[in-house]
Amino acid sequence: MLTSGGCPKNMLSIKDALEALEGRWKLLILFSLTSGPKRFKQIAKDVIGITDKTLSKELKCLEANQLVKRTVHDTFPPTVEYAITSHGLSLEKVIEELHYWGLAHRKEIIGK
Amino acid sequence: MLTSGGCPKNMLSIKDALEALEGRWKLLILFSLTSGPKRFKQIAKDVIGITDKTLSKELKCLEANQLVKRTVHDTFPPTVEYAITSHGLSLEKVIEELHYWGLAHRKEIIGK
């Protein structure tokens, strides 16, 4: 079992992951993009509670970590679309486990 | 597949989880406690880079979410110990998936 021992080597990889995904928004933005590429305003609508300023900052950060790809389309006026990368999609299991745990947490703690 | 569709109902449970685990420290603190109950200073030593002030704040937050239990032992002087709860241990799979993803992320992005 991974979690028996608190091994420092495992701690490093968990730390790497948490630093890349820090905050309450990044995984929600990625989750919104799993249904397909989206415009800024569409993501803002999906991720309830996020401000435009925060979304803009988080998208830049996700792009720097190669989790999201920003594409400018040569339309008139130009349109910008964000898509999840294959590296972003590799977070699927993390998102899935968070979903299950979030369900249990609501039942156990928030629901009380 | 959970991540096909960005379903709003799934979004809520992921949001619940991310709010309870917000920041880069909580899961690392819990991971440190998986090897057994610890004193404050022992956790501070395990979780490299955390300040005493942040650790103190995070432990209170983890206690409020019933992920950590604080016990005061009637010794002289009194000693305080922190232990992971069964609800905290239910994060094992989340931590495990973050560990695997962190390994891949270091290889793919940080290592470049």
Automatic annotation (TrEMBL), chains A, B:
Checking InterPro entries in the record gives: ArsR-like_HTH, HTH_HxlR, WH-like_DNA-bd_sf, WH_DNA-bd_sf
So where does this one cross the membrane? none
Alphabetized Gene3D superfamilies for the sequence: Winged helix-like DNA-binding domain superfamily/Winged helix DNA-binding domain (1.10.10.10)
Q: Name one GO biological process term.
A: regulation of DNA-templated transcription
Q: Which UniProt keywords apply?
A: DNA-binding, Transcription, Transcription regulation
* GO-annotated molecular function: DNA binding
Annotated ranges, domain HTH hxlR-type: 7-110
Superkingdom, taxonomy of origin: Bacteria
> Which Pfam families does the annotation name?
HxlR
Q: Does the keyword Nucleus apply?
A: no
Name the chain's protein.
Helix-turn-helix transcriptional regulator
The organism's lineage? Answer: Bacteria, Pseudomonadati, Bacteroidota, Cytophagia, Cytophagales
